[in-house]
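Hi everyone, sorry if this is the wrong subforum. Our group has a chain we'd like a structural model of before ordering constructs, and none of us has done structure prediction before. Sequence below.
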Amino acid sequence: MTANLLRPDGLGLWLAAAACAAALATPAHAKRPETALDDRLYEVALSSSTPKVYQERLKRLLKKRENQRAHQLKAKQGRQRGHTGRRRGLGVAARLDRLPVPDPALKHLLSGHGGEVRRSDRAAVSVPANALPQNLDITVSQPDAVDENTRQTVAANGGKVQASLPVAFGPEGTTFSEPVTITLPYDPILVASQGLREADLKVHYWNPRQQRWEDLPSTVDWSQRTVSAQTTHFSVYQVLGPGGGGIGVAAADASFGFKATYAFPNPVRGQSTATIRVQPGLADSVEVRVYDLSGRKVHSSSDFRSLGAFDDGNGLGVQFTYEHVWDVSGIGSGVYTFVVVARKAGEQDIRKTGKVGIVK
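Answer:
Right subforum, don't worry. Here is the predicted structure as tokens:
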């Protein structure tokens, strides 16, 4: 019977039958009929007994349904923003107003399978296979604007400044049996303009009952410009940092080009590491290669960490700064040449050379 239903001329009838069965078998208060149908379609699409050609058709159909619901969600958010406006106050940088709000992402995840839901700006949630208590439509979207001023006020009163747009992971209030990982993108210019260091950024979640922001242990990926954390429940999340910096940080030069490149201490004497520090404006990645006097490469690495924008006392003021620690314990005495390459999407790679002496 299944084979007959899956014949090309029977596919439409089979889908209609599945829809009716799902609607009749599922109580209205437990699950929307369209979501129940998705459950059935996903089960068939994942079944090894379903011909591959129908698996692909079902996946395309499911993707189309997810996109339709995402557009409905976006329209709802637009209406909410129309009622409340987009005014932002409380000293938040005007740049936050100008950050584009991506379309919401929506994906139907099955209990026992898990998966990832990712928005175009890299805001995402990764759900382990056994974390979902039931099949669920997971959304990554802009939160309702109704409580926006309250969230901003609480952040400002708590000495926290915003480094990203707020992101709502839904359905709000969903809890998980295992931690899920959420990832939020931050804006590096917004970070610099408010006196923040990227290393100090943390994911915070909005506690609606207690009306406060609570920080989570977080990991900063400066190359991707994201901050990640684990949680067991959904709410509104945002990247925040400690306020009170801001000593001229707005003057940091984000333009792509080397302002300074140097190694210290120089020469390296009586210690096992040398630090190579570069200030190339905002870069996507930085790499260093080190050569001895004969031209032999003795070291290479792209393990640079971002220090954010600050004044390191070199006379150039506040600059976006990255550094790499080179272990020279196995390197002999001599003068070495290092070549630093910085890269940024849409720009030509830039290079800078320098020398460092090692005395053993």
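For your construct planning: The radius of gyration is 26 Å. The helical segments are 2-5, 11-25, 33-46, 52-84, 95-98, 148-157, 188-193.
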